[in-house]
Queue: 4 jobs
Job 1
Amino acid sequence: MLYFKSRNVSFLILAIAASVSSRLVFTYWADPEGPNLLVTTGLSVVVFVLTLAAYYSLGRLVGLTRLLVALAIQILLVVGVAVWGK
């Protein structure tokens, strides 16, 4: 199994995924004015913080497994926001 020597790689992957997924949420809602940068950034920060909390609570898991579970939680969170907001 792949083991990350630095948590910074995992944090960077989670941050990029949060940014992309929050942008996709606002694209899915099809707002005629387009996604607001401030609101998109706010949602991205909220998603990242919640995913980071989940990442730290998965203490038993290590390496790639921990990252993949955190990404799955992030995807479920974003899908829930997208469906709830629609």
Note: Residues 57 and 70 are 10 Å apart (CA to CA).
Job 2
Amino acid sequence: MEQKDIPEEVLEGIKRVSEKRTIPVEKLIVEYDKIIEEKKVQRQTGGEEAKAIWAGKILFNRFMSKEPVTTYKMLIPFGTTEPRLKKDAEDKIENMRATMFAAVEITKIKDGKKVKSWEVKEMVFNGKYATMVRNIKMIRAYSNVKLYDKGYFIEVGDGTKFDAPQKLRMSEEDFITKICKLPKLDKLSDVITHKSRIETTGYADKTDMYLIEGMVVRGFKKGYAIKDESLEYEERVIKVAGENIILPQTLTVWIPSRFYKWDEDSELAFVGTISIGQQDNKPVMNAVLAYPAGFVCELPEGGKKEKEKVKEENKK
């Protein structure tokens, strides 16, 4: 579309956007043409000029509205998912997505005084940012992290940096239970009565997580089968809220690949959601974090295993 074919008030708006955002008028006109062709514009019953003016307003709002940005003074990541393609998306970097969970420091005014507290937030890494999650350390404090507010989650974008991680002066368990306020289950058999909330989508609420501990019986690259003394030799059926749940011999825990580094007999802790399989009625955890809870065995190198007690000061 040429400038002479654009209503005068729309062209004036385009020129204002161009001046303010230093975007060439020609490029904005291309975007304006795309908006004109959008179905929601074309299906309006008003005249062509009215549609053109509405499209101009849409263009103005899209380019002249800033996303809400918050710089978090203190942010402590504690869980992540694997970077992956969005559902049914073409195999391109812009279609990648990853999620991370973090405790963020929030300052609120109460009775005229500043009060600091912690909230668990879901961070989304879209497109070129998705692989950033692989380099961010878990349960380390990051300062002055700029993130974009999206309502129920926060998103990584231009200007987001995770620099100079600092160790915490508390154990992983204290951080998870006292700062994040996620409950720890006393024994693995408790998972059958602590199913995570189900959202309207039919999936578990990703923030309704639990902390569990168990010994690795076997690993299978994408997860572990773990056990403690509360899981018996034989499976048995237990009725919970009118539903027959199978208490298994071992609990399956699915994990991101970065946490698959310990071998059989390792004592590990996991944080994640708990759900009941629709096909087998067995509990399963989708974990976003795993860490040593006692003695661990590194995955064998050259067939050799070495058990060692991981001490706080030597943890990576």
Note: The helical segments are 8-21, 25-37, 39-42, 48-64, 172-179.
Job 3
Amino acid sequence: MDREEFNSTRFGPGMSALYKMDARNAKTSKYPITAVNFNEALLELKCRDGDYIWVRCESVDILPIAESKK
């Protein structure tokens, strides 16, 4: 997701993102979005182990709400 898409997205409860941890690694994982920092274009994602990570918007693809609930 680029900065323009980030700025125009209406974030809300139940949203998830596909996060690619490494540009060289094509594997992505689905994470719930728990917070958004609009000034820095960051998303807070909840990991399976209960920890939270902040990632740049360029590192994720937002899933539609229907896909987030699967």
Note: Helices lie at 3-8, 65-68.
Job 4
Amino acid sequence: MLWDSLSTLPVSAYIPLILVFAATVAILGTFSGVGGGVLHIPVMVWVLTEIDLKEIKFISTILVFASALINTAIAMYKKEINYWIMIVAVVVATPTIFLGNYINNLINSGITEIIIVILLSYVTIQLIINQYVFKKRSVEQNMQRRWYHIYLQKNGKLVNGFFLCLVVVIAGMVTSLTGMGGGVILMPFLILVIKLNIKDSAPISHSIILITSFLTIIIESTMGNENYFKDSHAMINVTTPMICGAVAGTVAAAFLKRFIKKEVVILWILIVLIWASIAKMIYDLSINGIN
């Protein structure tokens, strides 16, 4: 049985439920600009009580990759993707994710859960700042082009290559350690450090998350965790329908963005859900301790 609350239901009943859940998370994550990982992890820890935390992180990484793939494809269609940035992301993220997975194998699930709680707490603060500070701020670049700058042809802006490497390292570590992707970390860094606005930052963030999550999936399966793919029950009854839901939710969000103007309501729904999940994880830690 995968989890107590759904174990009494037939497969035909609970698969639609988790499909709808994944789609809802993808929509909330796309509207808020942080991706779905920040909600996938705490809710799956809450609900999928019979699945190990490391396997839950692996499933979340797959879902993050699926959403990032759709968002990156849309950005490519709109010619918003810079391929030099993607090349830098591959070169820098590969050793970073190897390191992150090595560290992840050294620490126990209790410490990982504490890291997730801290990161989620930061996420909610950053979401509020993004909504009420960053969206009202006009970001202007004031720099001369140097050899280490990457030129964004569509808007004429420059990306500092050294700062970009720092951003990719952070995203890679967040993805490999927590399975959340790194959208909520990437966006403020791209805005505050690299001096891009939210519109210019979003496609860069999606493309970096696409690369870091893909590399995490590949590297994780080569470091002794290939059994995750062999868990046919979890892959068929959990991962597959959630991937379908994540893709459908991401596509739906791209369409609904044209009509939904008050995204702040969805943002606060997401924040409240994250707060509830944080409370549940802290309660579990207080009962079970760090094992």
Note: The beta strands are 149-152, 157-160.
